Amino acid sequence: MTARTLFEKIWDDHVVAPESADTPAILYIDLHLVHEVTSPQAFDELRARGLKLRRPDRTLATLDHSTPTLPANADGTRPYANAEAQAQVAQLETNCREFGVELHGWDSAERGIVHVIGPELGATRPGSTIVCGDSHTSTHGAFGALAFGIGTTEVGHVMATQCLLQRKPKTLAIHVDGELPPGVGAKDLILHIIGHIGVDGGTGHVIEYRGAAIEKLSMEERMTVCNMSIEAGARAGLIAPDETTFAWLQGRPRVPQGEAWNRAVAHWRTLKTDDGARYDREVRIDASAVRPTVTYGTHPGMAIAMDAPVPAARNAMEQRALDYMHSRAGQPMQGTKVDVVFVGSCTNSRLSDLREAASVLRGRRVADGVRMLVVPGSEAVRRDAEAEGLHEVFRAAGAEWRVPGCSMCIAMNGDLAQPGQLVVSTSNRNFEGRQGKGARTVLASPATAAASAVAGAIADPREYLTEAAA
């Protein structure tokens, strides 16, 4: 038998009809994740055509993008940013009732960001195909799943058929050799990788992250890495499942139980690239060379170590980015004044991310003039964080502790920065105006975000973490 990559094994297992020169392959979808922003038109299309949802049991919905992260008002109403946001939420509630979709809404103890609750519930499983009308569906690739974002029209296709037309992507192996230095984490690593290969480095490919440094990452850290695969232009990002994966999933509500669990794990252990399998491209990264990394421009590929000089613009587009961000070529980002700090999003809102930020903030105060928001990724994360007293650490430092949601990542729920303000954010995109009209975004790790909040300027978290350890 021909040696195959991890991606090829999953692809082959899910192709209903192979592609030809004229037509894409038909790919079966195991799990369809749904939220309130990209689904209304798809449900309307089902109604217009008189169609039922093909597999309600393989569809899972939540409220996250438009939901306010402030607590409910005294009368029980929610402080929505505007009527449109409230209408989106109400429409998804209506659609899920009508079509029989499981919805984790306001009354659910499991509600949260779609790419946080899927793994928490055990709905995300190795070897499966997962789609969602959201770019960062690649998060689920951390479990050895083929997961990618789709457009609203495709959302309708999956609802109606549980299948998608897809051209087979190429494969890109990113080998991360060695070990990350102390105080350097998964967010620094993925920003370093994207800075190295560029925002188009993965275009047309599915990335498989491999190597000793990847194997040492926790599941939360693997999710951070895979989450940002789309920011390198990739269709998806994958990490082969291993004992870390199985231990994290065991006992979760939607995974097999008992003997069925043992059979599932036996199959999942086969989901790794065969010896001798060939990738279309391969890249090697030295983990020991990664330092606390931030962005300096207006896309994630404009990333450097915070103490390195900002590169000179090579073209008009890069110069516009430097001008927008007020970044100066030849000067490091470290020391740049900060106005707002955001810890949250599907990239960095899990319990380990909050612990990382709290380890810097404990016993310290957010600098005068800096606003800091900490938004857990789910109700489960919020419960666990509060059980550990992390919310009290954040509040004692002067940060705002919020209700779960996408929040300032996309700033469509009322959590946004003002024109000209610089935001150090643990999210995944730093486009112009992404976090509010005229707002300037610097992507960073939770530790860097917390250190910057304390310093009032972009700061190296290793100094604070060393003090905390001492």
From TrEMBL:
Pathway: Amino-acid biosynthesis; L-leucine biosynthesis; L-leucine from 3-methyl-2-oxobutanoate: step 2/4
A GO molecular-function annotation: 4 iron, 4 sulfur cluster binding
Keywords: 4Fe-4S, Amino-acid biosynthesis, Branched-chain amino acid biosynthesis, Iron, Iron-sulfur, Leucine biosynthesis, Lyase, Metal-binding
UniProt-listed CDD domains: IPMI
Catalytic activity field: (2R,3S)-3-isopropylmalate = (2S)-2-isopropylmalate
E.C. number(s) listed in UniProt: 4.2.1.33
GO biological process, one term: L-leucine biosynthetic process
InterPro entries assigned to the protein according to its UniProt record, in alphabetical order: 3-IsopropMal_deHydase_lsu, Acnase/IPM_dHydase_lsu_aba_1/3, Acoase/IPM_deHydtase_lsu_aba, Aconitase_4Fe-4S_BS, Aconitase_4Fe-4S_dom, IPM_dehydratase_rel_enz, IPMI_cat
EC class (word): lyase
Gene3D superfamilies: Aconitase, domain 3
Cofactor(s) it depends on: [4Fe-4S] cluster
Pfam families, sorted: Aconitase
PANTHER family: 3-ISOPROPYLMALATE DEHYDRATASE, HOMOACONITASE, MITOCHONDRIAL-RELATED
Protein role: Catalyzes the isomerization between 2-isopropylmalate and 3-isopropylmalate, via the formation of 2-isopropylmaleate.
Protein name per its UniProtKB record: 3-isopropylmalate dehydratase
Organism: Dorcoceras hygrometricum
